[in-house]
């Protein structure tokens, strides 16, 4: 009986968690969001940024203190945000913080690694 109750609670909690963190968006979806006016946020390190970033991205490294304050200063809270890092770990953390601050956020699946693998341009 305890197991059944625990499973029922888990089933009820799962949709709420999924609503908080939508699945990362693929390259094609990212391009559509950008065409529709979404902001692009790179949360990698300065060194990674200098090696190449997606054109039009704003740079606010998540590893630095004050990430959320920096992101709030750099972004328009009324527009959706597409966030990326190298492969998805840091951008997922950044997306969570931004969502909790009231932003509409999408995480680029696979990060800039997937972007480059799809043959998309980067700039230095």
TrEMBL record:
Signal sequence residues: 1-18
InterPro entries per record: GlpE_sulfurtransferase (IPR050229), Rhodanese-like_dom (IPR001763), Rhodanese-like_dom_sf (IPR036873)
Protein name, per record: Rhodanese-like domain-containing protein
Ribonucleoprotein keyword on record: no
Keywords: Signal
Annotated CDD domains: RHOD
Superkingdom to which the source organism belongs: Bacteria
Pfam families assigned: Rhodanese
Residue ranges of every copy of the Rhodanese domain listed in the record: 34-124
């Amino acid at each position: 009986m305890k197991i059944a109750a625990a499973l029922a609670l888990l089933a009820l909690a799962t949709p709420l968690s999924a609503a908080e963190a939508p699945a990362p968006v693929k390259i094609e979806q990212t391009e559509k969001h950008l065409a529709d006016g979404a902001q692009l946020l790179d949360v990698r390190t300065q060194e990674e940024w200098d090696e190449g970033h997606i054109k039009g991205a704003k740079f606010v490294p998540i590893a630095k203190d004050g990430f959320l304050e920096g992101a709030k200063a750099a972004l328009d809270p009324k527009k959706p945000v597409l966030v990326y890092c190298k492969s998805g770990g840091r951008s997922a953390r950044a997306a969570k913080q931004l969502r909790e601050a009231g932003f509409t956020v999408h995480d680029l699946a696979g990060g800039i690694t997937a972007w480059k693998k799809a043959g998309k341009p980067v700039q230095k």
